Write the structure tokens for this entry.
Amino acid sequence: MRSTPLHDRHVAAGARMMPFAGFEMPVQYRGIREEHIAVRRSVGIFDVSHMGQVETRGPDAERFLQRMLSNDVRRVPEGGAQYSVMCREDAGVLDDLFTYRLAENHFLTVTNAANHERDLGWLRDHAGDFDADVLDCADRYAMLAVQGPQARKLVGRLADGALPPRMHCCERTVAGATMLVCGTGYTGEDGVELLLTPDAAEDVWDAMVQAGAEPAGLGARDTLRLEVCFHLYGNDLCEDRGPIEAGLGWCCKEETGFIGAAAVAEARNSPPAERLVPFVVEGAGIARPGNPVVGGGEVSSGTFSPCLRRGIGMAYVSAQASEPGTAIEIDVRGTIRQATVERKPLYRKGS
Amino acid sequence: MRQASYPDDLLYHSEHDWARVEGEEATFGITWYAQDALGEVVYFDLPKVGATVSSGEAYAEVESVKAVSDVYAPLSGEIVAVNDALADQPEAINEDPYGNGWLVKVKLSDLAERDSLMDAAAYESSLT
């Protein structure tokens, strides 16, 4: 079992720890609901150091990533960020990723912890024809996410310059440590993600918490992302399904010729039998991953929404049942629960 | 309820459930240990009045944001009352697991079953 550089801080704060992707991670501190509400109303801080990082450098770096990533990497400026998926030839999704362009021929890609080794191997296996180096940088970075309406103000006060806008990144010194600040996040709130050297992580964490950031764990991370219908690899995304049925056609640009592009184009033309949709449970009950949808399909993510105060989730349902407003039934451990297909996101500011 | 607590007047089952026996009836709930492990309860599916429960068998489920846990009956009998207040305030199970967080009241079918339950001291030491 691996630990992140902030392990001692979590234990000292009374966090309930749990294994996740080979790391001992904090699930909650004060409580999932409290942490969730703190992020929605104010500011929370997450240790996401378990995530992996891959750097790609060289004259062919952009061309190589064009081949590997579904989105159009040419559109990422220096200091820009972009979301994409990485697919097999048959369009099966291997991971969903954020890539940052640090310099013309230098990129940083953040991988999901559970997929890091596989992603690295896949990238390296395909790099042979390109003048580009693929570097495993997972051990070089600790990573923190500071999220919420007050997040930018809090981090800004500790930074030596303006923070990058959404979907951009830049180097800054924050709380005494030089780091990459990224205008990205996984909560549906404004905020930043910080990539820094592991040695600096404890001091930066302390400074943020002292400034008012509420420590938040993986439990709240999941309820926050599900309220805004962000995908979680392993639940909503897997190798057996392509991006079109997962609702990620928007980040696929087949004209760039990425691995899997032909299969993705085919799926666009002949829509798959099932589609991923968000839903809310009507009345009592909480749907959980794996719960079958009556008539075809299954719940991929499910939880209790602290903001909506009801069961919510995402499910693969038959295409005929995928229109917002459709009533569906979910078999929750033998009890049939009524649910309604909705549009993304399930939670909106001001609701 | 911040501090661990195991009242002396209750009997305890190894699956982290308690029983308060009064004559031929008993009230059941989950222990401090169980609610602490679960985290904040967001949903309790109330069983039906009239249903039978059997000692050592699950008769209901309690849910936190992240997980679902079975609730076990310490003693056998028939449910005569359920705590309806939990439908709106499931967090009472965390805040007051031995008082307002009670789950069901049962008419007991076999008082001798009490002998196989633990007292507070025995249960508390079983936790370490």
User: Anything to note?
Assistant: The longest strand of chain A covers residues 93-103. The radius of gyration of chain A is 20 Å.
